[in-house]
Amino acid sequence: MPENVSLIRNRTEVGQGRSWGPGASARPAWVVTVLASVLIFTSVVDVLGNMLVIIAVLRNRKLRNAGNVFVVSLAFADLLVVCYPYPLVLHAMLHAGWLPGETECMVSGFLMGASVIGSIFNITAIAINRYCFICQANTYERVYGRSGTLALLALVWALTAIAILPNLALGSLSYDPRVYSCTFSQTTSAGYTIAVVTVHFLLPIAVVTFCYLRIWVLVLRVRRRVQSDVRPRLRPSDLRHFLTMFVVFVLFAVCWAPLNLIGLAVAVDPPRVAPLVPEWLFVVSYFMAYFNSCLNAVVYGLLNQNFRREYRRILMSLCKPRLFLQDTSRAGTDRSKPSPGNNNNEQAKPESL
C-alpha cells in the first residue's frame, strides 16, 4: 500500500516509459506472473463462455424467451471488460506501469464501470423477472411481452449509463498502480463513494434478495403443501432455473462484496483509513471482482441442462459444420408446444425476441 493516499492518483508524464503512480514496478515478478495468469484465464473463459451463451440463445428457439434476453444482456456486460480494459491491464502488468495516454485510461475505466454496473443491473432485472414469473404469473403475462421486455432492457442500460456518467464529471476514474487498472478511485470523494456502493451494489443486492426470498417462501409452501388450494406457477424446471440464477447472484455478491466493503470503510475517513487497508487485501478483492466476469457462463453449463446441451452442440459443430446447420434448421422449424421443463421460462406460447 502506498504511504499516502495521494500516491494512488499521482500521475507522472506519459509517453516516456514511466508509469502513473509508483509502486507497480516494485512488485515481485512472481506476483505479477500470478496476477497476469489469473487475468488471462479469466479473459479466455469470459470470451468463450459468454459467446457460447449468446450463440446458444440465438440459435435455439426454446431458449429465446423474455428471461433469457437479460441473460444475453448480462453476457454482453461481462464481455465489455474483455474487449478493451483487460488487454490494457495486462499491458500495464507487462510494462510495470501505464504507457497509453489519459484518454485510453478514461475509456478503459468507463467500460469497466459500465460492465460492472450493467452486470448488477441485469442480475437485478433477472431476479425481478423470476419473481414475476413464479410469484406474479398474471403480472408476468402483461409486463414481459416483446415490447415490455425490450423496454425493460433499454431501461437497464439507460440506468447503467446514468450511473457511470458522474465519474467523468468528478474525475474519479484514474490509474491505480496496485491493480494496474484505470478504475474508480475510492478516495476522490467520501460522499460519492458511499453513493456508488449504495446505488450500484447495496440497493440492487437488497432488491435481488427480496425477490429470491419471496420465491424461496413460495417454494417451501409448495413443498410442504401449506396452501393446497393454491396452484402457483412453479414446476421443476422453474425451480432449476431459479436455483441457477440464484447461484449467479450469490457468486456476484461474494466476488464483489470485499471490494465494496473496502470502499465503504475508506469512505468513512479516506486519509486515515485508506493507508490502513493492506495492499494484498485490496489486490485480492479487486481480482476476485475481475474473476466474476467469467463465472456466469460456467454456472449455466453446470446447472442448466438446456444450455449444457446447446453448448455441446455448438462445440461439436466446430468440427462438423453440417451438424450445426442441421441443428439450427431443426430448432428454427420446431413448432411443437414448448414445455416449461425444457428451458428457462417458456410460456404456453414462446416469445421470439
Automatic annotation (TrEMBL):
Gene Ontology molecular function: melatonin receptor activity
PROSITE patterns referenced in this protein's UniProt entry, alphabetically: G_PROTEIN_RECEP_F1_1, G_PROTEIN_RECEP_F1_2
Tagged with keyword Cell membrane: yes
InterPro entries, alphabetized: GPCR_Rhodpsn, GPCR_Rhodpsn_7TM, Mel_1A/1B_rcpt, Melatonin_rcpt
The entry's keywords: Biological rhythms, Cell membrane, Disulfide bond, G-protein coupled receptor, Membrane, Receptor, Transducer, Transmembrane, Transmembrane helix
Gene3D superfamilies reported for this sequence: Rhodopsin 7-helix transmembrane proteins
The protein's role, per its UniProt record: High affinity receptor for melatonin. The activity of this receptor is mediated by pertussis toxin sensitive G proteins that inhibits adenylate cyclase activity.
Renumbered residue ranges of the record's region Disordered: 330-353
GO biological process, one term: rhythmic process
Subcellular location: Cell membrane
Name of the protein in question: Melatonin receptor type 1B-A
